[in-house]
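> forwarded from #structure-qc
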């Protein structure tokens, strides 16, 4: 049998086949005093959260429950059904109070181990406090109640207009008498006078609603003398039951027990990566000078964990990192406290480096130097995270000069995306890169530089440019193709003009500009021309990335559905391209000689080869340190990562329960179904936003509205076009 980690080593004997635990009676006594069940009613719970007696994690953290689940919780409580236990760890420490009210008069004495989402839901509803969703946007949990049907529902426009509903029960719990009176007055205005029988029914039902304050939870309280190792084990086991957790979730859970301040710093950095300093100042009600907001990546705490363990523990595989933090002997099952402390100290040392302003800011500049202008051009978050870990190691462990490191890491990012280095077995590849640096004989900066240079040169070999890259451009998804997006980055490095325009591509790709009527990828061989004149109906062939060029909407309209042999000479003449300007256009946009008269397959084949040559020219200019994109400005407008909740899309008619969605890129074999809980169900996982569902499907650089299309009997409809028709402003 297996030995439990809380059994003293002196009390364990081993023979050839088994572990034998002696003195079981002592073990039983210890377990019986480890925890005890205590009754807590709802009002006591929410008041204790408000005062800080119960240490509910900061409401600035993402709240993952959909509103429909809160509705179901309240409905079960109203009917007197059991809704599960809550678990606290009774521990009182100085300076650990997280009083949400801002008061620090009372120290926290109960830390939540299980039931955080339920307690956050109750606190939000009974106190009317907002929470933050997965995108760190503030929202209120508006739940409605119908006293006639005794039904709870997520508030929507129809409910708000109906006289049969109390549209926000938070207001009722704040002032029952006022809301009750207003409800009756509104009902009488709409339905007529309330008779005695109806009056009695309303009083009875709203009385039952008010009695939710007295609903009693069974709280399992782990006693204060319990060892942190035991609590951590309980914490992880409870939080992993019935849920498919990522390794980063386990590490974050572990940090919640052993280093809560470290986890809070990760959460704060993640939250602020979505906020401008101005907005962060408004939320904090105090001046915030800097936030990590950028045009490329809004990180979550789990992604930061990946960088943290890479820098601190030299590990890329999060499962291995978590096992190291547990420090559990695989043979005996015992935890090595000394080794555990060593691993934790590695993270304590690494965290200031990971969230340091100068490190993050300078690294983000590397993306701009590499020609990438926005998130849409970054097709893999893992590429950014892995490169950031290497950047930190280069700057701190090896002391590489900042100017040298900026150009080196810009080329590393360029190479990594172009070659798909961190696509597929990303953890394995990053571990090889970390091991390669760990094996160096010294921490001299030259060793770091030479190591990365050798990898870049090996990846971007002659065969890569002439064979592998042209093959990689055989794709029908420009937005998801890392190779095509790197070609566009090269055009930025080369300071190229738009197709048949005298305007710089990088100016039109500026994420601060409105997207509507901006840069468009136009078919050089128009779709209807290919279908109607050449009989090519396969969309994957029509939408080959080698058939796209960046231009503006007016040029798109001018080209219309005409064949290249007709519109190309007309545009050249009308817009005055000749000599060098025409030659530049032909080079930048990889146009073969007499391309307008080529067979379509030949055109695609030759253009892919030329696109690889243009990309190589961009890299060589970057290698020479001549990139014009070295200046990166921090976004000053609202976060570019704002995304609507699925519940909002249902309310506005963009989506409906039961809708089936598929990716715009038809080569991706995955489906999403909109559930009654206002979530997208994808491969057994539920997501509250289309962005997170798209991210699960492999799209790191697209919004969910751009990624998904709705399936119906009438065909496929891109959600972005539905939004445009309904004039929904995101």
């Amino acid at each position: 049998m297996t030995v439990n980690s809380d059994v003293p080593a002196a009390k364990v004997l081993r023979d050839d086949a088994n572990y034998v635990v002696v003195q079981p009676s002592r073990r039983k006594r210890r377990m019986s005093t480890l925890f005890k069940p205590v009754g807590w009613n709802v009002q006591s719970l929410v008041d204790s959260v408000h005062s800080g007696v119960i240490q509910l994690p900061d409401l600035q953290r993402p709240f993952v429950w959909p509103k429909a689940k809160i509705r179901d919780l309240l409905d079960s409580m109203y009917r007197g059904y059991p809704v599960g236990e809550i678990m606290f760890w009774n521990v009182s420490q100085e300076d650990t109070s997280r009083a949400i009210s801002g008061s620090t008069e009372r120290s926290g004495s109960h830390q939540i181990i299980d039931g955080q989402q339920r307690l956050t839901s109750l606190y939000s509803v009974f106190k009317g406090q907002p929470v933050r969703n997965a995108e760190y946007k503030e929202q209120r949990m508006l739940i409605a109640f119908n006293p006639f049907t005794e039904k709870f529902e997520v508030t929507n426009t129809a409910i708000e207009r109906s006289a049969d509903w109390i549209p926000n029960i938070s207001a009722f719990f704040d002032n029952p008498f006022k809301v009750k009176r207003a409800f009756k007055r509104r009902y009488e205005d709409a339905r007529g006078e309330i008779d005695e029988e109806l009056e009695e029914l309303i009083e009875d039902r709203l009385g039952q609603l008010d009695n939710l304050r007295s609903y009693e939870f069974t709280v399992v309280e782990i006693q204060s003398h319990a060892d942190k190792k035991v609590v951590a084990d309980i914490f992880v086991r409870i939080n992993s039951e019935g849920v498919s957790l990522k390794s980063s979730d386990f590490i974050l859970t572990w940090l919640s027990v052993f280093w809560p301040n470290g986890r809070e710093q990760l959460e704060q950095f993640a939250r602020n990566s979505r906020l401008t300093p101005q907005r962060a100042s408004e939320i904090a009600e105090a001046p915030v000078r800097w936030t990590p907001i950028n045009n490329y990546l809004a990180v979550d705490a789990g992604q930061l964990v990946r960088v943290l363990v890479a820098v601190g523990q030299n590990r890329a595989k999060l499962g291995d990192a978590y096992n190291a933090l547990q420090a559990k002997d695989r043979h005996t099952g015992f935890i090595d406290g000394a080794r555990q402390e060593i691993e934790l100290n590695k993270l304590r040392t690494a965290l200031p480096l990971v969230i340091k302003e100068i490190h993050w800011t300078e690294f983000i500049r590397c993306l701009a130097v590499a020609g990438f202008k926005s998130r849409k051009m970054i097709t893999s978050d893992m590429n950014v995270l892995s490169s950031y870990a290497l950047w930190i190691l280069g700057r701190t462990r090896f002391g590489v000069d900042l100017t040298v490191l900026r150009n080196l890491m810009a080329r590393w990012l360029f190479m990594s995306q172009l070659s798909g280095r961190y696509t597929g077995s990303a953890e394995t590849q990053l571990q090889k890169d970390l091991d390669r640096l760990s094996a160096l004989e010294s921490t001299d900066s030259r060793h770091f530089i030479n190591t990365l240079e050798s990898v870049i040169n090996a990846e971007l070999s002659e065969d890569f440019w002439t064979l592998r890259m042209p093959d990689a451009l055989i794709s029908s998804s420009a937005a998801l193709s890392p190779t095509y997006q790197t070609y566009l980055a090269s055009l930025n490095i080369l300071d190229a003009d738009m197709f048949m325009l005298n305007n710089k591509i990088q100016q039109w790709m500026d994420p601060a500009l409105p997207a509507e009527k901006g840069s468009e990828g136009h078919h050089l061989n128009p779709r209807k021309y290919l279908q109607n004149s050449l009989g090519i109906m396969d969309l994957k062939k029509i939408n080959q990335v080698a058939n796209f060029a960046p231009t503006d909407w007016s040029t798109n309209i001018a080209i219309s559905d005409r064949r290249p042999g007709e519109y190309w000479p007309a545009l050249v003449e009308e817009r005055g391209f000749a000599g060098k300007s025409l030659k530049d256009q032909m080079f930048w946009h990889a146009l073969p000689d007499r391309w307008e008269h080529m067979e379509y397959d030949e055109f695609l084949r030759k253009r892919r080869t030329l696109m690889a040559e243009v990309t190589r020219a961009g890299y060589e200019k970057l290698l020479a340190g001549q990139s014009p994109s070295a200046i990166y400005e921090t976004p000053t407008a609202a976060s570019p990562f704002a995304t609507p909740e699925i519940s909002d899309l249902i309310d506005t008619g963009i989506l409906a329960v039961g809708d089936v969605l598929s990716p715009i890129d038809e080569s991706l074999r995955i489906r999403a179904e909109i559930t009654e809980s206002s979530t997208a169900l994808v491969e057994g996982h539920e997501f509250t936003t289309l962005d997170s569902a798209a991210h699960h499907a492999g799209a790191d650089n697209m919004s969910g509205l751009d990624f998904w299309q709705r399936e119906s009997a009438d065909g496929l409809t891109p959600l972005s076009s539905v939004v445009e028709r309904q004039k929904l402003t995101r």
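QC bot note: The radius of gyration is 30 Å. The chain has a mean pLDDT of 84.
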